[in-house]
Queue: 4 jobs
Job 1
Amino acid sequence: MKLLIKQARIVDPASPHHGQVADLLIENGILTTLSNKISVKADQEITIPGLHVSPGWVDCFAHFADPGYEQKETLETGAAAAAAGGFTDVMIVPNTSPALHNKASVEYILHKARTLAVNIHPIGSVTRDTEGKELAEMYDMKNNGAIAFSDGLNSIQSAGLLIKALQYIKAFDGVLIQLPDDKSINPQGLINEGILSTQLGLPGKPSIAEELMVRRDIALNEYAASKLHLTAISTTGSIEQLKKTKKEKSGLSCSATPYHLFFCEEDLTDYNTNLKVNPPLRTKNDREALREAVRTGVIDCLASHHLPHEKDAKVVEFEYAQHGMIGLETAFAALRTSVEDLSCEQIVTLMSINPRKIFGLSAATIAEGQSACLTFFDPDAKWTVNSETLRSRSHNSPFIGKTLRGKVVGIFTKNALTLV
């Protein structure tokens, strides 16, 4: 197959063609020619005004609910949503039934995903059944294709267990992903604790529940001299601690969700259950601190925290609704809309360059002779999110009906083109 992309702006700091507008010729999955003008007969040609191309984007925290919760999402529908969001690679959390806690479960994911449009990378659980009680078979999972380790939606509460896991993964240069949340601090909290939670009559979850765990986990990782990635950072205190530590130490990285950059607690005044998430939406000041952390590089990458739910899990009273929203298809546009002054290079660093470095994926550099793993996008196109065109099996998105800036055009990976 020959694919010719005409006059695309290349966004890849590692490429000798970075910043140039060029034609790209892909033959049998290999980027064979980059030039100002290519005149060849191709099987397919793409000419789109304003087109940008970058190394394929990576999402490091998504839930595809398969096996066990296929009414929410399947690997097939999750992959379709990821492709529509511009992601060539997605790391999926182990909170399935059964959990991804042994080599058989990792092999199941990899076998089932081999023909899908995107590369799906299972995250092996740190503990059996993600229950936080005893360590899972991490070495076997790593040898069979697990990209990293986490208990996913379940924050590891035991310091002793976490430090053992951090020490254990050093044997194979692994990375542990943790969602920082001290569950002993007001576990009934539904939204951010503050004036608004009182006004709405909803129990609050204080910022300190996250910030204590951030400080604890950083200290444990320093002691173990291992690799820790903290995800869904949402408070000013967490950002300040990360900023200070990252200046002095290595082995620590972090990610934020697009929805914490876009929304804040004030968006909850109409009790929209699609905005019930964990950690909860924080204050406007927290949101601005998070946006600044993205601008300055304190936040290393984005994590969609794509968490699909069927209608019955969300169309209920706020107290009984399950946490989470879908986010793969709106991740780029939410970032582009909420942090408008980010350059395309900063966006690609957040969505491709950094996560590939942190989790050991190939760089996917745009250069002649390289295997083509690409994302195509228009950074300035505006579009309105429509529930009828969403690829995810679930539609629990607060972005439906909103007009966003920045649109994905498609992806190329596994020697196949997928257009949105």
Job 2
Amino acid sequence: MSADALEADPLPTGIELTALDARFRDDPYPILAELREREPVHHDRGLGRFVLTRHDDVHEVLRDLSLWSDPRKARPGTFTRDYLAQGDEEPSMLLMDDPGHKRLRDLVRRSFTPRAIEAWRPRVRAIAERLVSSLDGVFDLVDALAAPLPSMVIAELLGIDPEKHAQFKVWSDLSTAVGFNPAPEPAQVTAAEEARAALYHFFAEEIAQRRGHLGSDLISDMLRADEAGDRLTEKEIVMQCDLLLIAGNVTTTDLIGNGVKALIDFPEQADKLRHRPELWPNAIEELLRYDSPVTNSGRIASRDLEIGGVEIGTGETLSVSLAAANRDPAVYPDPDAFDVEREDTHHHAFGGGRHFCLGAHLARLEAQEVFRALLDRFARMRVGEAGFRYAATPSFRGFERLSVAADEGS
């Protein structure tokens, strides 16, 4: 180690590398940049994990199909085992290994193909335009738009009364607050358990109603799903509904909030999109790269590894920083700039490998329709007097509050 490294301030570690820390929560990128520069494979002993921040390391880990995801396979004392495992209970598809993961994904993936999701565009557009049309000159973007829209869309996809979207949002927020949190409050744990129980009961009733009257919704699709005589159980359908609510609801809320903040901070980019709508597909990818709603993903070492000269033993947690990888200057010129014309907008915001986000197409569609509706209505947006506050949700990045002052176009 160089003398300069020895004299440098200690690197942030443990809770300091999560949204529970105010400095990291408000702006993680300078911290991640320092980590990537000084210790790109960081042994976080406080939380029992190895944090990877270089783009190429993150990419290789995500695409390595031999690595594990099931928390029960992690070594005791590691982040994945201590904070993500639910005893001996089978994890959700998000943390499942093959063959179970492949079986579930094969049974549900037809409902999430680009063609299947595109069929929902007219309905998503109608919801986005209705919500945007109700906005006044100053509003909290989260309460007025970013939170209700994905909840309403998911309710529609599942064939559930859209009026229940507010309750969906409460349940999903309570679950997410604990899901990847290494230091939850006892009250948060209790609330999350109650929310999960309520969700199970709710979806079990919805499934029972569908069995004799299948419709065109996702719950009906899951009841129809059949691969070589294999079908989803009630518990598996409930788990998929839960995953859609939690993984799709919260992350899309954050994508909308982060995207609006980027458009506010870079008004010249917003102007480009108003005049050149053909840039929208590229712009959404750039938004996902620039300020990803999901900041971390993970794998478990299935064998002894060496990454960047650091030895990592079997069963250790590999915490890959998607946020850091998406702003690695070795890959992206001027990585801290938001540029809707950026030529290379590939990113890791949706993870990678076998666990690439199943709802990626839906998230992109929702973002396109929301941002178009906003820019069509408002000639200018800026942060309102009430300001903004980021949510303290580990592994996620998004706003708890984002006040927007907007001027309507002529």
Job 3
Amino acid sequence: MRIPWTRDLARARRGTRALGEMFLAAGADYVELGMHGWAKRIDDPRELARFESDGATGGGAYAAAATHLFGTAAMGGDPSRSVVGLDFQHHAVRRLYIADSSVFPANTGVNRQTSILALASLCGRRVAM
């Protein structure tokens, strides 16, 4: 009998591999899977491929969470203290706009989906000008 979520777990392993490979290709020194039984730090794409093929098949082995990341691309007028300007445009990369919770100065501790939607709308108007 096939367990219905095994396909989901295979997809999760594939997605983890793809993300890890992208991070390494972009210059990350290593990635962390956060999975019991795997090296804490992986710096070789072949190990990510092994994770995809040999990773746990039981749902209890995986813990996943998604959240808005705050403050990683802070907005501000001073390029030495922020990543994007008040127009949502990256200080160093022209025409690269960032309009998500990463422009917030820090985690607000509550769901800010409405604020994120408002920021994205403002940015969209700015880009369309």
Job 4
Amino acid sequence: MGELFFHLLRSRPAIAKVGGRLITGAGGILVLLATLAAAYAPVDSQQFVIGYRAHILQQTLYMIECGLILFLFVFAACFRLTWGRATLGIGLGRGISSSVHLATWAVMANGGLPHNRYLLDFLNMATYHVCVLIWFYYLLVPQKVATTSAVPLPENNLDIWNRELERLLQQ
């Protein structure tokens, strides 16, 4: 997430320095919140203890990742920063992947689909593959360049446009 942030702000080193501190702070707060969520999670005695702790750890990691991606998109929107093509693709793919993984872990944690949990595994796997396709698209498909007309506009059209613009400005 830090690399995405620095690629987003590489043309503005002063903002990158302050933003680096902001994303570090946001990450620290998210780690604290995730730790609290893991500490107060109810313990299910029917599950294996190791598997349960791994489940909580993965869920908190997805919480942190979703929070950091959300922070990154909100920060870019607030400061009206333009995304590079590759940076946007990677951020979008990671955001989709971590959001779906977090949602499926939440469904599993609340006892959803107890006999068909393999469906959630397939959903996670399909989401990851879709995200890989998103990454391929943003990294490998060249960006479309706006084409300009090779034929210059006739002079008389420019005169008409100029006259109409002057008329509109006088009103």
